[in-house]
Design goal:
Mean pLDDT: 90
Shape: globular
Distance between the termini: 45 Å
Largest sheet: 8 strands, mixed
Number of strands: 16
Oligomer: single chain
Strand order of the largest sheet: 6-5-4-9-12-15-1-16
Low-confidence stretches: 1-34
Number of helices: 13
Number of domains: 1
Length: about 375
C-alpha cells in the first residue's frame, strides 16, 4: 500500500490496519539498539514533588497473577470469568474481604476515573470488553457513578473501531486526543486540527529529536518539532487513571503498562521510537499527569500475543487466560515481560531473554516509579 493510500485508509475508519502509521521497520528494529541518547527535560519531572498517590501507589512491588483457563471460550473472553478474576485479584492485592472496600482504596465517588485501554492493534487484539466491562461493573457496585467514568486512548477513531462506542457503553464518555468530525475530517472550518483543542501545552515532554511529518501524517501526531504535549484528558479531565494494557510484545521487548501510558498520553511520538523508545516509556510516566494519577494497573492477558506485536498477527495471538494486577506499573511490567518472553522461548522465537529489551523497566525503577527487580517483587499467584 502506498503511503498516501495508507493514510487515506486510516481516515475513513480503517485505523486497526495501522498500529503506528509512522513507525517503519527500520525504526522498530532499532528500538533498543541506539547508543545515542538525545537530551530531554526529565529533570523537570523529577523536580516536581511527589504526592501520596504517586507511582508506585499503595502496594509497591506487589503483583497478583490470576489464571483461569475457562476465561476464553471459542476465542471470546468471558465477561463472567473476567469479573471473578478481577474480584479475586483486587481482594488479594489489598487484603480486603469486601470488594467495595478494595476498590475504595484506589478511587472514590468524587473522582473522575479514566480507563486507559489499548485498541491500537484493532479488533483482533484490543483490551477486551470483558475486562473493561468487569472494571466498570465493579466500580459501579462500589458507588462510582457511570458519569464519572471515562474510557480513553490516544486515537478516538481506534476506540470506535474496536467497539468502544457510546452505544456499547451508555452513560460513559469515550474520548481520544486525535479525533475526527462526523464527516471523517480532521480540521475545522478555520483549518485547525480538532486535536489541538485536546492537548495541554503547559505539560510537555521535550526531547532533542525533531519530528517532521507530511500532511497525511500530521493528524496522527498533532504537532511537529521537539515537544510532545500531554493530552488534556490526563491533565484536566480525569483525577484518577486505571491502566488497562494488553500482554503483548514488540519484537523481543514487551508493551504493557508503561508503554500503554506513555505513548498514549502525548503527541508527536513517531520521532521518539528510534532513539528514545525505552526512555519515553519511563520518562513520560514520571511527569505528574501520569505519575500522580495512575492508581491501578490491570494487564489484560485473557488474549495476548507473543510475536508480531505490537500489531496483531493471528498466528501469534494466544490465550494467556491471565490478569496481572497491581498499583505498581513497573512490577506488573516485569512480571508480564517474563510471561511473554517465556512464551517466546517456548515457541523457539528466541533462546533467552535479552536484558536490553527491558531497559525501560530499569529506567522506570531508577525514577522511583516502581520495583523492577524480580527478587524484590511480591508475586501472588491464584489459579481459578
Amino acid at each position: 500500500m502506498k503511503r498516501r493510500d495508507f493514510f487515506r485508509t486510516l481516515s475513513i475508519g480503517g485505523v486497526g490496519l495501522a498500529l503506528s502509521p509512522v513507525v517503519n521497520a527500520a525504526q522498530k528494529s532499532s528500538l533498543f539498539l541506539s547508543d545515542e541518547k538525545p537530551s530531554t527535560n526529565i529533570a523537570d519531572a523529577i523536580a516536581i514533588p511527589r504526592t501520596k498517590d504517586s507511582m508506585p501507589g499503595l502496594f509497591p512491588g506487589r503483583v497478583v497473577k490470576v489464571v483461569d483457563n475457562s476465561s476464553v471460550v471459542d476465542g471470546i473472553p468471558s465477561a463472567d470469568r473476567a469479573y471473578v478474576m478481577l474480584r479475586e485479584s483486587l481482594l488479594a492485592l489489598t487484603g480486603e474481604k469486601s470488594l467495595k472496600k478494595a476498590w475504595r482504596k484506589f478511587v472514590s465517588p468524587n473522582d473522575i476515573i479514566g480507563l486507559k485501554v489499548n485498541p491500537v492493534a484493532g479488533r483482533l487484539l484490543t483490551t477486551s470488553h470483558a475486562v473493561t466491562g468487569a472494571v466498570i461493573k465493579q466500580l459501579e457496585e462500589s458507588g462510582i457513578p457511570r458519569k464519572n467514568i471515562v474510557i480513553w486512548d490516544r486515537r478516538e477513531m481506534q476506540l470506535h473501531e474496536t467497539g468502544y462506542t457510546e452505544e456499547s457503553y451508555p452513560g460513559i464518555e469515550i474520548v481520544g486526543t486525535e479525533c475526527m468530525d462526523s464527516a471523517g475530517g480532521f480540521y475545522d472550518k478555520e483549518g485547525k486540527l480538532y486535536s489541538e483543542g485536546r492537548i495541554d501545552k503547559n505539560h510537555v515532554f521535550i526531547a532533542d529529536v525533531e519530528g517532521k511529518y507530511d500532511s497525511y501524517t500530521i493528524p496522527y501526531m498533532v504537532n511537529e518539532g521537539k515537544n510532545s504535549y500531554f493530552t488534556n484528558i490526563v491533565t484536566e479531565k480525569v483525577t484518577k487513571i486505571i491502566n488497562l494494557p494488553i500482554l503483548k510484545n514488540a519484537g523481543p521487548t514487551t508493551t504493557l503498562c508503561l508503554k500503554n501510558l506513555a505513548f498514549g498520553a502525548v503527541t508527536n511520538t513517531s520521532r521518539l521510537h528510534s532513539k528514545l523508545w525505552h526512555e519515553t516509556c519511563a520518562y513520560v510516566c514520571a511527569f505528574p499527569p501520569l505519575r500522580d494519577k495512575v492508581v491501578l494497573n490491570i494487564a489484560d492477558g485473557l488474549i495476548g500475543c507473543f510475536d508480531g506485536g505490537p500489531s496483531a498477527k493471528p498466528q501469534f495471538i494466544c490465550n494467556y487466560n491471565m490478569l496481572l494486577v497491581g498499583s505498581d506499573p513497573v512490577a506488573v511490567d516485569r512480571v508480564g515481560h517474563d510471561v511473554i518472553i517465556a512464551k517466546r522461548v517456548e515457541q523457539g522465537i528466541q533462546k533467552v531473554d535479552k536484558p536490553e529489551a527491558s531497559r525501560f523497566i530499569d529506567l522506570a525503577e531508577g525514577l522511583s516509579l516502581g520495583i523492577g527487580q524480580r527478587e524484590r517483587i511480591e508475586l501472588i499467584e491464584k489459579k481459578l
